User: What shape does this take?
Amino acid sequence: MKKTAVITGGSRGIGYGCAKALGLDGYNVAILDINAEADYRENLDELTGLGIDWYYMQGSTVIREDRERFVENVVEKYGGIDVLVNNAGVAPKVRQDILEMTEESFDYVVSNNTKGTMFMTQAVVLQMLKQPVKGLRRGVIINISSSSVTTSSTNRAEYCVSKAGITALTMVYADRLAAEDIQVYEIRPGVIDTDMTKVVHKKYSDLIEQGVFPIARWGTPDDIGGAVSAFCTDKFIYSTGNYIDLDGGFHIKKL
Ligand SMILES: NC(=O)c1ccc[n+]([C@@H]2O[C@H](COP(=O)([O-])OP(=O)(O)OC[C@H]3O[C@@H](n4cnc5c(N)ncnc54)[C@H](O)[C@@H]3O)[C@@H](O)[C@H]2O)c1
Assistant: This one.
């Protein structure tokens, strides 16, 4: 039977890159995103053109009713969920020094990035546990965190904190779910060319030119989709709770 992958925040950017990669691998693709279905219709049309079966629901990972309705609808349409990509996330609306950061901004970023990942995973895992093991496992969960887990940005501390929380969730869920035949991984993207990075495009392009990134180019949503696709194969079957930096080598310390 065909497998099904859920991608949060999959209407555009990295999430869409993951949806396309998994769709091309033969998965049904189910997207939960706060954007309306019409907002990035060209991407959904591309999936259709590629012969990928997709389901889209407008909703938020932070809202319990949205998560529950989404899981119910996906199970009704496709019969189960085999892969979850926790990609939905936000940057602070305004970049502000940590000494100026507002509680509203902290709550907004941590809620969407960390709380959304925590409870979306819980909702999907409760469904996965009703399903039998298929092949070598019952399911795979991939969390999209960021280089910001280990890189300080003093003007968006709430983002760093929210992504470090995802690292903790990766560890604890991996531990809890190993015996259930569900593996959990984390991808830490560097600078990826999407709507999120439009506001800092010039700054990051300059850094790339200055040689800050050993692989001297912007990352693309397809770069992340490729790694997600690899984690969903059985090639990493004796591993869980691991992360990979997808950052053009940015994490390498240099002298
Ligand atoms: N672009 C980068 O350089 C970069 C680097 C590291 C990590 N990331 C992470 O990758 C993920 C995707 O980023 P992107 O660059 O594609 O950004 P993006 O803003 O283009 O896409 C994010 C998508 O998530 C959706 N979304 C946000 N909050 C949501 C929620 N609570 N529920 C459902 N949908 C929600 C948005 O509507 C949007 O479609 C984010 O978690 C981001 O933090 C991005």
